[in-house]
Amino acid sequence: MAEDESPLIKALPPESDYITYLTIVEYNLNPENLPVLHKVLQDETMTTNIGWDLVHLLVPFLPESEQCLEDIARLGNPREVILKVTESLRLIEYDLPDDESLDEPSQTLAGALDSRVRAESSTYPTKTASTADGEKRPGSSQMVELSPPLPLAVSQFLALLSMLAILHPRIKTKYPSRFLSTTLQAILASFSNSGMHREEMLLAIVKTVKTITGIRRPLLPTRRSSGMMSAVRSISNQHAADPEGNTGDHTSPEEEATKAKLLQSFVTHITEEYLLNLPPHAEDVPDLSKKFAERFQHEEKLSRRTDAIGQIVMLARDLELTDDALLAAAVAVEKLPPVGDQDEAEPPASADEIPLSRVGAVLLYTAMQASAILYDTSSKSTSTAASDGEFTIFPDHQSLLKHCLSSPAHGNGTLGTEPEALLDAILALGLICLGRDSMGEPASDEQFNEYLQVTALLSSNSPSPNLRGHAHYLTTTVLRSQPDDDARLSFVRDTLEHCPFENLKVSAVGWIKGETIEANPPASTPGHLHQAPESEAKSVFATPFALESLAPYLFPSLHVDLISAPAAEAWQIFQLNLSFYLTSLNFLYLLLCAKHLHHSLSVADLWKNNDVAGSFLQPLRDAAKRFGTALDDGGELTDERTPGVIAELMLLDETIERVTRAVRFLNET
Questions:
Q1: HSE-up of 636 (CA within 13 Å, CB side)?
Q2: What SS3 state is found at 331?
Q3: Better pLDDT: 592 or 214
């Protein structure tokens, strides 16, 4: 059909009024007519009158309708169009991610920082032109495979954000925060409903915010040709004036402060939404060393995450979001909206009414600190963590643990069940403190113990073995930093006596074992020349008192639990505590074999006074025999029999026999 014969041309006013013409467009709109409509929309008067009602009609035709939507953003009434754009954002229907997109490994900040703290070898790797398997990367002589087209919902999100980037600078009003508040809420709501291509969406969000605010820093280049730059859309500079605006209107300092706080709050909420909803991973990385940093450099799915967070960090710095503000938000009491509130809140009356996201603040602050360490760049944040010094374990990190964990709003209220991203950020900050030797001073032994109790529980309860390991390392290192021997002994005793978690009791045995070895080096045995200086106080771990006070918990009486109890009940107790039993037996073996400990620690008295042989060792031996019989065919526990169970019983038998043979060393000293 010739263009002159198109109904969109023939019905142009004055042949019809604007309402009638809009109806004609709606009934005749199709991909073939979009070039014609694009020409029609170059008429500013026409677009001002009908443009805002065309937004919801054109969105389903993306990406072909992108030019028409840009025309509406440039020439339509910005106040009316912006309402339609935000409404359309909320109505986008996203597809759920497929199973394949969930099958991704996950890097954690704590993991990367833990490797950096333990061994200064985890540096940001240099770029290479190919992967380990020889696949050529963009920039090589081979052809580059183009990224597949984005889903319609994602294209809609990107196009609507491009419109917002045009519309907001066009609005001339004394109170731009009212429009900005509506826009940011709609973007966040739409982004929260999405499940795929979130990195492209984040890039578009960053560009939109920079355009609205006038920030001129260019977007950071992505380190791989991942298709993310396709989210950056160029826009025309030919924009119509705001027909309802007054060029003489000037915003007040209070209004500027409200705008700034809205944007800062938005960045923290976007950070929370993105990081707390990363797809679950199929494997838990056990030791995140340099090779895993390289995976994030070379694997597209993973490098895109790093690029996305890098863009958010730079945007936060451009918006002058300071460390002070983030940390203050992290420990603030969050005000939850009243029940029954609508999705869209009323615009704030002042900057003071706009809270930052508490979780988002923690995540963003951690990302800022970690980027300076992992990528060897100096922190560009506006201020330090506190006006009088750096971020320290006590009191700063301890305060974060207290305010950010065990919240019913995140997890089920049980410590360690919070989202992995939040736990990762909290642990990463602790590792940063260790790397900087920023321990600080606990206000009291109670504060010290409270801190260790939280990190120790994280090492027990977190579903991620990776995060459990980092929490254990943090707990052990902070515990060893306490110069007061009695305080360290008290925490170990409290853990052994009261902690219900077997894996934490295993850790406690490891702590006392380490203290014992360090306080009693072989060179200090009688007959050697090396002696501690008289002015140096003797460690409590170099005296019999420490082990004697812990003996009832290290080598408990087990007859009632494992012998007197019914087989099924005894078996359950045995299974829950087997690792603890084996760890205690191994520590006992060390005490028996290390002859230089026998005199200084009164190991013979420890053995006799606590009836270790009769109350601890023999019940374990009898229980192993009892369960072995019960697991045989026809026994009470036949259904529990597996190769792994049999191997565990064999290991217990072997360990008991090693300890029994080592008892003879007590008679040789």
A1: 12
A2: coil
A3: 592
